[in-house]
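Researcher: Sequence recovery benchmark, item below. Answer with residues only.
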């Protein structure tokens, strides 16, 4: 019996020694994740073309994160397939923190419902932080002959089915915004889907379609140039650049208002060490609140917010469910 107890103790000490040795070997990796990162530039993949709202916001955040992380943040545009190509590139990158991606309402809460290819894409990503919200603005072409929301609604209802609205594609956020507008306001605006936001905006500017909901940073230059007329915004408050344009909340359509407030955040490949994710999260949130970054975001009509990893993940799940209801109402099926 004594021998048995000695053998047991010997095995226990041996197991402890092995565990301690393993922990010692792992210590440099823990230190590297927590203390050394980042030791080289970080790539920020934007899943849309340059010049759009996502790209503009990404470049503002990248500049802020350069100072908070101490390394350059290199913006890499990977446009295509409604944001799936860029998002897939993030999910397939090495999980070391040196490749992160911009996340949007479309890429994380609509595409997984719209495309079978993206169905499990969110499972391959870690939500790092939600950082910025951007208003959507609903604009009309000057040739429609209206100057405000009431005039627009009167015109649309007087001519059912005669006014057309541009959206970037079936099932996109723009489609949901316009379909929900029709349902809520009891209007019959023709929904014209395009292959992307660029072509849709071009036809809206040319007057080939008379109405278009879009994110404020994309269309603000055209509003200032008088090429488009804003009639309503989806925002928590009136925007500084459009002080005379009411929010949907003011107009009594709070659900439209909430649906139209877009957000941008940061994601990383699944498997990225928690210490690295935490460091990215802290640097991104700090960057979004830098005075210069806030000033530049304000000129875009955007607002910095602070939502950490756990809350961001919960919001993505909740919004995915609500968007599923809207897509089902619109009759959009996964491809």
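Model:
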């Amino acid at each position: 019996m004594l021998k048995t107890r000695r053998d047991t103790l010997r095995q226990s000490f041996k197991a402890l020694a092995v565990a301690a040795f393993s922990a010692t070997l792992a210590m440099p990796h823990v230190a590297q994740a927590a203390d050394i990162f980042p030791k080289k530039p970080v790539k920020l993949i934007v899943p849309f073309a340059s010049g759009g709202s996502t790209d503009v916001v990404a470049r503002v955040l990248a500049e802020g994160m350069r100072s908070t992380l101490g390394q350059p943040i290199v913006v890499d545009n990977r446009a295509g397939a409604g944001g799936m190509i860029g998002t897939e590139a993030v999910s397939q990158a090495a999980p070391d923190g040196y490749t992160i991606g911009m996340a949007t309402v479309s890429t994380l809460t609509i595409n997984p419902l719209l495309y079978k290819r993206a169905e499990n894409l969110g499972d391959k990503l870690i939500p790092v932080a939600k950082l910025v919200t951007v208003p959507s603005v609903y604009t009309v072409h000057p040739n429609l002959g209206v100057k405000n929301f009431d005039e627009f609604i009167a015109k649309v209802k007087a001519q059912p089915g005669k006014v057309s609205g541009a959206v970037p594609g079936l099932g996109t956020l723009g489609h949901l915004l316009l379909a929900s507008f029709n349902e809520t306001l009891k209007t019959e605006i023709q929904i014209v889907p395009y292959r992307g936001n660029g072509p849709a905006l071009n036809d809206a500017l040319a007057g080939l379609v008379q109405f278009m909901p879009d994110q404020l940073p994309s269309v603000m230059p055209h509003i200032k140039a008088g090429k488009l007329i804003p009639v309503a915004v989806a925002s928590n408050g009136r925007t500084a650049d459009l002080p005379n344009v009411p929010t949907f909340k003011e107009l009594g359509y709070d659900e439209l208002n909430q649906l139209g407030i877009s957000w941008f955040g940061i994601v990383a490949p699944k498997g990225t060490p928690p210490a690295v994710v935490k460091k990215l999260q802290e640097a991104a949130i700090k960057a979004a609140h830098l005075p210069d970054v806030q000033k530049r975001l304000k000129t875009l009509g955007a607002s910095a917010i602070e939502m950490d990893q756990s809350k961001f993940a919960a919001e993505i799940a909740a919004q995915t469910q609500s968007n599923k209801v809207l897509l089902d109402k619109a009759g959009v099926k996964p491809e």
